[in-house]
Every structure is written in C-alpha cells, then in structure tokens.
Amino acid sequence: MSKWLDVVVIGRNEGSNLEKLYKSLFPIKDILNEIIFVDSASKDDSVIISEKYGCKIICLDESPFLCASVGRYVGTKIAKSEWILYLDGDMELHVEFADWLKDFQPKKDNNIAGYLGYYEYIDNKTNKKERKIIGSTKGETDYFGGAVLLNKNVVLQAGNWSLSVISNEEIELYSRIQALGYKVHTIDITMVTHYTELMPKHKIALDLFVPFFSKKKFYGPGQAVMSAISRGTFIDFIKAQPDLFFTIGVNIISLILICISIIFSNKWPIVVLTVLHVIILIKLFSVKKYVLYQGLSFRIPFGIYYSFKYISEFNQFKEYIESKISLLNYQRIDLINKDTVR
User: Fold this and answer.
1) pTM here?
2) I want to staple 96 with a disulfide (CB 3.0 to 4.6 A). Which of 39, 162, 189, 295 is the partner?
C-alpha cells in the first residue's frame, strides 16, 4: 500500500492532548508518510511528546502574529505527500474516518479538492458530547474548519493558507479554492474528536461582538477581507460567502437610513430598516445565522484597521516565516517503527 498522506498538526501548549492524537493515527500507518507538528512557541512538553512519536517538528518563535493559519502554511510548505490531513493539537482522529482513509483511493483529474466529516465535540470540563458538521451536511460544503483533508497541490495553487489571517482563515482559503473550480465534499461519518470548551449561547454572542472575549481572533474577518483584496480575489470571496456580504450590504443601507431618520426626523427610514432586517432573517432561515453574520460584519472594520496598523510588523514576521522554512533541518523518524505507538 502506497503512503500518500501527510498529517499536519498545529498546536500551542497541547502536551496534554497530543499523545491521544498521535495514538489515534496508528490505524492509518500504512498510508501515512509523515506527521508534521508545527509548534507555536509552546511552554509545555509538546515538542518532547512529538519527538517521542516520530514527528517532523517545526518550532516557531513567539510572536503576536502566530495563529492556526501560520502553522498550516508552514506545514503545507514542508509536506511531501499529495494529500494533507490538517488537525489541531486538541483533536484526535476518529476510527470511522481512519477506516474511510484506508479505503480511499486518491483520484486525479477531478474537481474535488478535499473532504471533511462530522466533529464529535467533548467539553473539557463537563465531558458533554456534541456531534455536528462544520459547513453543509451533504455534497459540496460551503466552508470547513480546522480538521480537513485537502489536496496539497490545490492548496498551493490557490496560494496556500494566508499568513495574515488570525481567524476565519478557512473561509478565505476556500474562496480561492472554489475560484479555481474545485470543491470540498462532506462525508457522512465522524472525522475527529475535538476536546474543547462548548460555549453557551450568550458567551458565543459575546465572543462575536466583544474584542475582550475573542482577543486577537476578533480581527480575523477583516483580515480575511484584506487578504482577499490584496490577492485580487475579493469578488471570489463575495461569491463564496453571499449571505455574509448580503448582510453587510443591508447593514450599510441601514446606517444610511438611520442617518436620514435622525437628520430629517422621519420615522419611515426606520420602518424600511426593520423590513430589511426581516428580509435577512427570511433569507437566512435562522436566527443563529443572523447573529453570526451580524457579528462577522461588525468585526470586519476592526480587522481592516488592525491589518493597516501593523502592516510593517507583519511583513517582518512573514520574512521570518519564509526564512524559517528555507533554513530548516529535519530529523526524520519512522512512525511505524516506534514501539510507543503500538
């Protein structure tokens, strides 16, 4: 059986989770060429554990620009196999997806760039479980999350993960993949178990609208817009997320109507504004989506400002990442021969 797959794992201080992740990969050892662990300046034993399981390790220095997208960018540049399975350090591969991978036959000359399945979320504090899909439930998905199987050549052809997008980087990358005529398919099996915090609805809302709660991830949507503009793919980004940009358009019109109402002391612009937002709700068929898109549209101006404010610092960071890739010396250890994973 040919080894057609590399696994790119990203993490920061995930030492308590990594052992479970690496053990979950053992069932696919016959198709697995290499595990690449990109460490974002961890202070724990993440690197030691990854060495124990025979990973190729890239350690990135501390920086305010470190994020998931940076790790995946580096991992993609390092990977040698045609297909890459991207995982976060607090995940583990589910046995259903492992079995699917063993039967998967990589195909050429089609427009499928990747696959994703369901996530099984387990709350770190309560052990509560929740199974759900990120994106569409059938056929071509409209977006994907941190766990996804992608064709490396398509990712590179699309320009790779964006170094300048702290969050929502998956949406921005997928818009470029779709612009090339490729798509990612959803399969009806569990892909990963994700150990995380299952946030209540009020905390999710606060995370969307208050920078204090989401911290630097708050700026991601605006950075995604800036990345798309700088790459000349902004129209593709709009096409990939029509509901989001429809919401943004209505919000812009709403601001204009509010200004008219205040200036001319007229109530009719407020009536029109209310009707417009009812139309958004009808179009989205979901209060949850309405709140999500309102939160993302609220974040965008802040992210654009953040991108401009730190543009010189980011350019220096990008030079550091590229030099890191070019100068790396790797220690290769065969995962299959490691007694610790048996």
Assistant:
1) 0.89
2) 189
